[in-house]
Every structure is written in structure tokens, then in C-alpha cells.
Amino acid sequence: RQIPIFYARRVRGNKMYGGQSTHLPLRLNQAGVIPIIFAVSLILLPSLFANYLTASTNPMLRNIATNIAIWFNPNGAIYNIAYFSLVVLFAYFYTAVVFNPKKISEEIQKYGGFIPGIRPGSPTAKYLSYILSRITLAGAIFLGLVAILPALARSATSVQTLILGGTGILIVVSVVLETIKSIEAQLVMRNYEGYEKK
User: What is the pTM for the complete model shown?
Assistant: First the structure.
């Protein structure tokens, strides 16, 4: 989503500065692949400890470890619900770390900018937080679905050798998009070089 920002005109001496309009781009997935990486790291810990404890000589400890290993089986419902929830949680957390609405609103105000219909300063920060939380919800749910998509595909098709993961899909897509952007930038540069020669 693009939030419009207008900059007021300033007159200094005989010259007029500003009076421009631009936009603040807010991506659907501000966090990228990081929430999936955090969630995988955290969700694998219980099964990792459970696998070590299943060899225990204590029958109660071995029984608890076996149950944990069953609950956190990657094909199980509990694992996938916990994985989805952790991805959504980490998407919100990482977006809050990366994008600071208060700092952005201060920067906009410092350079004489404003969002139409919103007062500069604290109201702008609240507006950006409101918009960002709504966008992050959709992005976090999408990211969670991408994360558990391989497990859903395995259960729907009964093909257990499906190796493609949600993180791999996101990395491939982001590399392809960056390559397309790089090619487009090169094409634009070549067009400018053609103008310089004339």
C-alpha cells in the first residue's frame, strides 16, 4: 500500500522550495522470510530434546519424551498449528522491530511533509501504526500459510517425499523478483545511455 505524502512549499528569498508529493510504500510482508526462520528454530527445539530423552532409562521421562515427539511430528496438526501461530507472532514482532512509525512520522514532519487529512507528529504515528497492523495481519497470515503449505500438500496428496518448503519458495520468488528488478534497471540505464550519445 502506498500512503501519499505531501511536502509544503517554502519560500526563501526569491526561490521556492518543496511543494512535492510522494508516497510511503508499505509492503504486505515487511518481515520477509525472517519469521519463518525464527519459527522453525523454535518449533524444532521440543522434538530435538524429546529425541535425546527417548533413550532415557527413566520410564516416566521416556514416556513424556515420546509424547512430545508425537505432538511435534511435522505431519501432525499440533505441530502445524504451533508453526503457523509462531510465524504470525514473529511476523508482527519483526515488523515492529524493522518499521518504527514514530520515527517515520518524525522524519516526515522534520522535512515539512504531511499525510493528507492527518496532523503531523503523534497522529501520523498512530495512523501509520493502524495501517501497518492491518497490512501486517494479511501478510502474516499469508506467510503462515506459505510456511505450512508443504505439510498441507503432503496430507492432501499423500506424497511423503515432497521436499519443497515454504522458506525455499519465498527465497526463490524473492530472487526472481530481484533479478527482474535488476534487468529492468539495466534496460532503463541503456535507454539513458542512448540519449547521452545523441
Answer: 0.76
CA angle 46, 52, 53 (to 5 degrees): 85
Pairing of strands 15-18, 9-12: antiparallel
Reported in sequence order, the residue ranges of the chain that DSSP labels E, i.e. its strands, are: 2-7, 9-12, 15-18, 21-25, 113-114
Strand blocks (E) in 35-121: 113-114
Say what the pLDDT of residue 196 is: 56
What φ, ψ does residue 176 adopt, rounded to 5°? Answer: -65, -45
Q: What are phi and psi of 33, to 5 degrees?
A: -90, -10
* C-alpha closest to that of 151 among 49, 63, 51, 39: 39
Please report, for residues 32, 80, 103, 115, 136, the alpha-carbon distance to residue 89 in angstroms, rounded to integers and kept in the order given. Answer: 13, 14, 23, 29, 10
pLDDT digits (tens, 9 = 90+) for 121-133: 888 899 989 998 8
Residue 135 in contact with residue 28, Cβ under 8 Å? yes
- At 20 the three-state DSSP class reads coil
Distance between CA atoms of residues 197 and 192, nearest Å: 9
112: left (phi over 0), alpha (psi -120 to 50) or beta: left
The CATH number of domain 2-162, selected from 1.10.3370.10, 1.10.10.10, 3.10.300.10, 1.10.8.60: 1.10.3370.10
